[in-house]
Amino acid sequence: MAQIAKLEVQTKIKSSADKFYGFFRNNITLLVNVFPEVYKSIEIVKGDGKSVGSVRFWKYFLGTPMVTKERVEAIDDEKKSITFCAFEGDITKYYKSVMATLQVTKDGGGSLVKWSLVVEKANQDAPPPNIYLDMVAKDPIDFPLLTNLETKLPKPLTLLGKD
């Protein structure tokens, strides 16, 4: 019988929903500039890296060097939601399927960032997928003024919104 786990984490940030979502929608490959200790490279291998069907090859470090291929499964700009599917690499040693969804909503002067992770374990001995949720939620990127971030990122930077 399939063992499916769903984990969620929600974080409040100071940044506008448009800016935070815009970073993941249009500039996700720049995570290597923001968190170089975790993300070593993100290469677009199919598509433009921004639209449904695009595939990216990730090299990252979670206690040991790892690689993963993921595909953009769904994008809803109105709801500020993106769904990714990891389908190759180290992550598939433990999980048959991995779906991650980012959703950003306005919350007062800031935003709420919600990450959802749905995994199907490859076998009953597979560890819980908490490490992957921790990876995306441990230090959420915040864009209150973009001041510190802009020094780490190459130009041009495409974000949604003007605030």
Description:
The chain is α+β, with helices and mostly antiparallel strands and 163 residues long. Helices cover 16% and strands 44% of the residues. The chain has a seven-stranded antiparallel β-sheet with strand order 1-7-6-5-4-3-2. The protein is globular and about 45 Å long. About 9% of the residues have low confidence.
Question: Short description, anyone?
Answer:
By secondary structure, the protein is α+β, with helices and mostly antiparallel strands.
Q: SS-based structural class?
A: alpha+beta
Describe the sheet with the most strands: 7 strands, antiparallel
Number of helices: 4
> CATH superfamily membership, which one?
START domain
The succession of helices and strands, N to C, reads EHHEEEEEEHH
Average pLDDT, rounded to a whole number, is 84
How many separate domains?
A: 1
Helix share bin: 10-25%
CATH topology: Alpha-D-Glucose-1,6-Bisphosphate, Chain A, domain 4
CATH class: Alpha Beta
Residue windows where pLDDT falls under 50 for at least 5 positions:
144-157
C-alpha-based Rg, rounded:
16 Å
| Strand arrangement in the largest pleated sheet | 1-7-6-5-4-3-2
Share of β-strand residues: 35-45%
The outline comes out as: globular
Cα(first) to Cα(last) distance is 48 Å
Number of strands: 7
CATH architecture level-2 label: 2-Layer Sandwich
Family: Belongs to the MLP family.
Protein name: Bet v I/Major latex protein domain-containing protein
Organism: Tetracentron sinense
GO biological process, one term: defense response
